[in-house]
Design goal:
Chains A, B: Pfam families: LacI, Peripla_BP_1. The structure is a homodimer of 328-residue chains. Chain A has 328 residues and is an alpha/beta fold. The longest helix of chain A is centred in the C-terminal third of the chain and has 18 residues. The structure holds a DNA duplex (30 and 30 nucleotides).
Chain lengths: 328, 328
DNA sequence: AAATCATATGGTACCGGTTACATATCCCTA
DNA sequence: TAGGGATATGTAACCGGTACCATATGATTT
């Protein structure tokens, strides 16, 4: 690979002039520009982003850290982030962390310090201190679905509690009289909020019992298992609110396998609004987060921070909405 | 962020000694080591991978370029690659390219030249020349599912043609007498091979007709649409071989929606062996590629190349196998 | 006519590491 | 006892860019 000095030599100018042309700052004569471009062409010169990074320039790469690449919610989110990044001239790289703090710290270590110019975390496992450290190095951060206030970085989230309440209310409106909840890992703030939202409504009714709460891990398999457990405990349950769509899809499979008709015998509602919910039979009712909007927003805010060298940290809460389909 | 020179100053040694300690090459006295470690601790020093990259060291990052992050096949593959990379001390970053050559070139541009020390392409849209250029820069490459011979880079693939033949034969064994094929984009070599495999068997029978070939794009929706078209053309079809699992899942939904019983009226077989095929009702019969094995192999071969500075380019073909489930 | 300014280009220190080479002990062996 | 090898550390060039400062010229202003 050619270097800027080789280009300069071939074009008969100094490296400074070549650099000025490439970055389009400073003056460069038309003829000189032509000569340099010819040399660049000839040598097939590509500026090294490494060297550029070392020299203090921002790199046009941003990283999106995802907790579970197998949950389609995150690829959908990633697509939205990607679209914005691309249109703004940034390259997006994806990092899968399994919600594992060690892995995330590892990504930060490998990528920070000018390797990437900004991070979007769609995960919840890093402590405030972990992020604080990164912030101090000047790297802008946007976080999705994190709890707490925004003193460190900008936060974007959907209103999970409200969404959960909408889900339960919807099932009640459909005449359900015993509604269970499959909840996600309580280390994840959105899972906690959805559980809280469920309880806020459910506890007002006399059919409520803590045994209607079934643990899951946000993955499809756990939806199947949860249904097994639930039907054992409460054969008369007639409504299920799953903490996310993947578990809802799993639950649906579990129900069909048992020969239970959805929604006639048991109505089912998920949460997230991933595309996959339209692909089951029956199609799933779900509480939709504005996934694309969240991703776009995250990317735009991050890029804004990158290009303005900081900017204020805000907390953005987006609305969710009910998508009623044939599973209720 | 502290620099190596600050650490050296605080520890009262030269930068060379610090560098030697960090990289564990060359001699460092025990006492000196202790002093340096104390300084590193105190300043919270992290070596800049950027500077390290510029100075000619390999970076411990490899990139995996995926054509469609929404197809669970690729996240599954990514997980396998990730496991190996992690255990070998490498960080994996994911790049979603939509099978778009421009996007892929963009990733190469942003990440090559020491930014990452190796690439795995699970895509098919780059020309030999595109890769050749990257190779010349010394970056090792491993390619999944590419056609042609391995003069440029190592290639790993599953035997799609054979798999397709197995699928059709299986449907025949199940007594099917009119088997359709939903094929994927013919720009993708695996899609072509699966179509060829289908034809190789199907053309031997008198029920064969080119109108049994329905185009799809490897995405779930196209499976649904394909079924619509197929049933219009051939209401008497009794077997479907879908070019990948996502289209098979779509086809299944299309069939169920039409009230067609699977497998009684129409038997259905997919290709890939993604986990999601166990999540439908009925569960899907599929031709399984050794996804995890392919990912692991790709990672191991790549890392081997990185650490041995090159190595031979080989062509690895892996076997597929039939997983018979209730959709046939 | 002198001062100011826009245009155009070159020289080079610097970013933060790595590493080849020089230097200096100390110990062991022929 | 001179010389060779293992141990230990420092100096400085280098990787490939960026950007500050200096320099030079022609045009415009006062």
């Amino acid at each position: 690979m050619a270097t800027i000095r080789e280009v300069a030599a071939l074009a008969g100018v100094s490296v400074a002039t070549v650099s000025r042309l490439i970055n389009r700052n400073g003056y460069v004569n038309k003829e000189t520009e032509f000569k340099i471009n010819k040399a660049i062409e000839e040598l097939n010169y590509q500026p090294s982003s490494i060297a550029r990074g070392l020299a203090g320039k921002r790199m046009d790469v941003v990283a999106l850290v995802l907790p579970d690449i197998n949950n389609p919610f995150f690829p959908e989110l990633a697509r939205a982030v990607e679209d914005i990044c691309l249109s703004r001239g940034y390259t997006l790289i994806l990092c899968n962390s399994d919600n594992d703090r060690e892995k995330e710290l590892n990504y930060i270590k490998s990528l920070s310090r000018n390797s990437v110019s900004g991070f979007i975390f769609a995960t919840d496992s890093l402590s405030q201190e972990d992020l604080q450290e990164l912030r101090q190095s000047g790297t802008p951060i946007v976080v999705l679905d994190r709890s707490g206030n925004a003193d460190n970085c900008s936060i974007i989230r959907a209103d999970s509690r409200k969404g959960a309440m909408m889900a339960v209310q919807h099932l009640l409106d459909k005449g359900r009289r015993k509604i269970a909840h499959i909840y996600g890992p309580q280390s994840i703030v959105t899972a906690r909020e959805r559980l809280e939202g469920y309880e806020q409504i459910a506890q007002q009714y006399d059919w409520y019992s803590p045994s209607l709460l079934i643990p899951g891990n946000f993955r499809l398999e756990s939806g199947i298992e949860a249904v097994e457990l639930l039907l054992e405990r409460h054969p008369d349950v007639d409504g299920i609110f799953a903490g996310n769509d993947m578990m809802a899809i799993g639950a649906l499979k579990g129900l069909i396998r048992r020969g239970i008709r959805v929604p006639e015998q048991i109505a089912l509602c998920g949460f997230d609004g991933i595309g996959m919910t339209r692909m089951t039979e029956p199609e799933l009712t779900t509480i939709a987060q504005p996934i694309a909007e969240m991703g776009k927003m995250a990317a735009e805010i991050l890029i804004g921070k990158i290009e303005s060298n900081g900017g204020e940290n805000r907390f953005y809460e987006l609305d969710v909405h009910l998508i009623e389909r044939s599973s209720t």
